[in-house]
Design brief:
Layout lengths: L2 H26 L10 H23 L18 H33 L3 H19 L3 E3 L5 E3 L11 H9 L4 H4 L56 H20 L8 H10 L34 H6 L6 H14 L1
Helix pairs in contact: 1-2
GO molecular function: protein-cysteine S-palmitoyltransferase activity
Keywords: Acyltransferase, Membrane, Transferase, Transmembrane, Transmembrane helix
Organism: Lithohypha guttulata
């Protein structure tokens, strides 16, 4: 079917649609609740239908106007080549701008030897330093422990040229731009550092909001000791349910997410005796809800924030060693 045929069928098709909706519906009304239209309702309804017919007829029959065949805009260039050149210029400018932004952002990351996530870690460290500066150099850690926050330099920025060589895998300028150059041989475990910090200093720096809080479960008791002798049947059932709840908390309640900083600060300022009830915050709280200066989050890049929070790779080494010592001592 040609476009001319579709254009000729457009007006009759709309007329059939208006007639079907306006008149067939009036034949169906008597069979529907609450019943047929009253005389007044029928007059008002058909008056509005006539108004629709009039509006559509004027829209179809009114001449929209035509551009004269010999008319040209002022300053119009007759050559088609010039018109195509301008069109290509408009299309290529936007593409070139977007590609240029991506290129310079990648070049900056290469020269500084910093990835997107590492850039966020640097911003996060700066934010912790500002908070610690206001609170005397310390921030509240898990269970109210005070953690000293000191400035740490990003250890993997080893100079612009060395950063480029490390990122591209070669110091040969020809190999830098050769797409079939051999990939660098590296184990991915050791990297050159600038030596600004003491050996063994970890990166990223300690973050109190990411340190897990360990809950101490109830003291272990002999499972075969009867402590509810003389209870009624209902009381024994209630005691059994309480033991179930305690067992569940002991098994699955070891790690919980801390409240966001400003909530903890307001809570401590209002009452020093207020008991903090442990509850799970949603994904917009604490470290998981932190955003960089551009408003981006880990979730925007496809990273599972819940997994990142509970990943033991992010737990400080001292905390892991303390847990191992407690395990051996209790075993």
């Amino acid at each position: 079917m040609t476009p001319e045929t579709l254009q000729r069928l457009a007006v009759p098709g709309v007329c059939v649609l208006i007639a079907f909706l306006a008149y067939v519906s009036q034949l169906v009304f008597p069979s529907l609740k609450p019943g047929a239209l009253t005389t007044q309702e029928r007059v008002v309804f058909n008056t509005l239908v006539v108004a629709i017919w009039i509006c559509y007829a004027r829209a179809v029959l009114t001449d929209p106007g035509r551009v004269p065949a010999d008319w040209k805009p002022e300053g119009f260039r007759d050559d088609a080549e010039g018109l195509m050149t301008r069109q290509r210029h408009c299309l290529n400018t936007l593409t070139l701008f977007l590609v240029g932004v991506t290129f310079f952002r990648s070049l900056y990351a290469l020269c500084c030897n910093v990835s997107t996530i590492e850039g966020w870690e640097i911003e996060r460290h700066e934010q912790l330093l500002r908070r610690a500066r206001v609170l005397g150099g310390y921030l509240d850690g898990p269970d109210g422990t005070k953690i000293r926050i000191t400035r740490q330099e990003f250890p993997y920025d080893i100079g612009i040229w060395r950063n480029i060589c490390a990122g591209m895998g070669s110091s040969n300028p020809i190999a830098l731009f050769f797409p079939f150059a051999q990939s660098p041989n590296t184990d991915g475990l050791t990297f050159d550092t600038n030596g600004f910090e003491e050996p063994g200093t970890s990166w990223p720096p300690p973050d109190p909001d990411r340190m897990p809080r360990i809950q101490r479960g109830p003291e272990s008791m002999d499972a075969f000791t009867v402590q509810h002798a003389g209870l009624t049947g209902r009381e024994e059932i209630e005691a059994f349910r309480r033991r179930q709840e305690d067992d569940y908390q002991r098994r699955f309640g070891h790690v919980e997410r801390r409240k966001v900083f400003h909530k903890r600060y307001e809570s401590n300022a209002s009452s020093s005796l207020e008991v903090n009830i442990a509850q799970e915050e949603d994904s917009t709280s604490g470290e998981e809800g932190w955003q960089d200066s551009g408003g981006n989050r880990l979730d925007d890049f496809g990273v599972d924030e819940e997994v990142e929070f509970y990943d033991e790779d992010e737990i400080p080494l001292a905390e892991l060693l303390r847990r191992r010592q407690d395990k051996y001592a209790s075993g």
